[in-house]
Design brief:
Helix content is 33%, strand content 17%. It is α/β, with parallel strands linked by helices.
Length: 156
């Protein structure tokens, strides 16, 4: 059995989470799974460490803060993974910031946005993203980190 090549230790990825992601695990309907945000963060940090990636895993309920972080990632990170949450469907400022980011971008969602309300079927973020992972809950977060590692490592 072969294992994926690790990304060089100098690789940095910013994992940005938008509004209400801090409430994961508290939804009675379990739309976003049962893992709390701190549990998801720990899972992601463990996955990143196993791949030799320095992960900056953050969350904000404020659009401007997400834009600021995307701008800060320029020159500081090789990749951005983003779950813009509800801002996915409305934020041109986040799209514009992502379009100015020179590295790789992966859009991720806990739920399958195409099985939900019609307004969730259009993502502004997708225009900037190299790929989209949706509907796999916390596993999708870990898969996004693995996919980002491969993109950075290959230089694709």
């Amino acid at each position: 059995m072969t294992t994926p090549s690790a990304t060089p230790a100098s690789s940095t990825v910013w994992f940005l989470n938008g509004p209400n992601a801090n409430l994961y695990g508290l939804d009675a309907n379990k739309t976003y799974g049962s893992d709390s945000f701190p549990v998801l963060q720990q899972r992601c940090e463990s996955k990143a460490a196993s791949l030799g990636i320095q992960l900056n895993f953050v969350q904000s309920n404020h659009e401007g803060q997400l834009v600021d972080w995307i701008q800060e990632a320029r020159g500081a990170a090789q990749g951005v993974i983003i779950n813009a949450a509800g801002l996915t469907y409305s934020s041109v400022p986040i799209l514009d910031a992502l379009l100015s980011f020179p590295g790789r971008i992966i859009e991720v969602h806990m739920s399958n946005i195409w099985r939900r309300e019609a307004f969730r079927h259009h993502s502004y973020i997708s225009k900037a993203a190299d790929g989209v992972i949706a509907g796999l809950g916390g596993d999708g977060y870990e898969l996004a980190i693995e996919a980002m590692s491969r993109l950075i490592h290959r230089g694709a």
